[in-house]
Amino acid sequence: MECPKCSNAMESRTFKEVTVDRCTGCRGLFCAPDTIEKMKGMWMTEAVIDMGDATVGKEYNKIDDIQCPECQVAMDKISDPEQPHIWLEACPQCSKVFLDAGEFTDIKFNTVFDRYRDWRKGKRA
Ligand SMILES: [Zn+2]
Ligand SMILES: [Zn+2]
Q: 23 alpha carbon to ligand 1 midpoint, in Å?
């Protein structure tokens, strides 16, 4: 699988019971929304899984017209109403999400990130 943002290879990383695909270049993460939920409750996931440079992640966050690396369909932009500064890409087909480096850490520490379905779709302001 190729990273939709920087075209480097995505590698599968397993930590305890969760598995994510992580880009070997920009360190973006690709996983199912419930995996994010699981990782939020797990100790040290932000250090082990989201070990990319948030500054680099911010640069890649500007690239927002990407395709799902699995389904090759355009991904939707979604944002958390609680944390409107965080924008993720979600696949309308497999519903997996792409997080830039540093975004998971942001989510884990700053949010309630309550219900995925409450998220709104839209254009980045
Ligand atoms: Zn990448
Ligand atoms: Zn997909």
A: 5
Residues 6 or more apart in contact with residue 68 via CB below 8 angstroms? 4, 74, 75, 91, 93, 94, 96, 98
Position 4 in a domain: no
**Host domain of residue 96:** 10-113
**pLDDT per residue as tens digits for the range 12-71:** 999 999 999 999 999 999 999 999 989 999 999 999 999 999 999 999 988 888 999 999
Which ligand has its closest atom nearest to the C-alpha of 93? 2
Whether 5 is covered by a domain: the verdict is no
Ligand 1 centre distance from Cα of residue 34 (Å)? 22
- Ligand nearest to the Cα of 101, by number: 1
When divided into structural domains, the chain yields a total of: 1
Q: Examine the pLDDT at 115 and tell me if it is beyond 50.
A: no
30 and 97 Cβ atoms separated by less than 8 Å: yes
Does the residue 70 lie in any domain? yes
Is the pTM above the cut of 0.85? no
The ligand whose atoms approach the alpha carbon of 26 most closely is 1
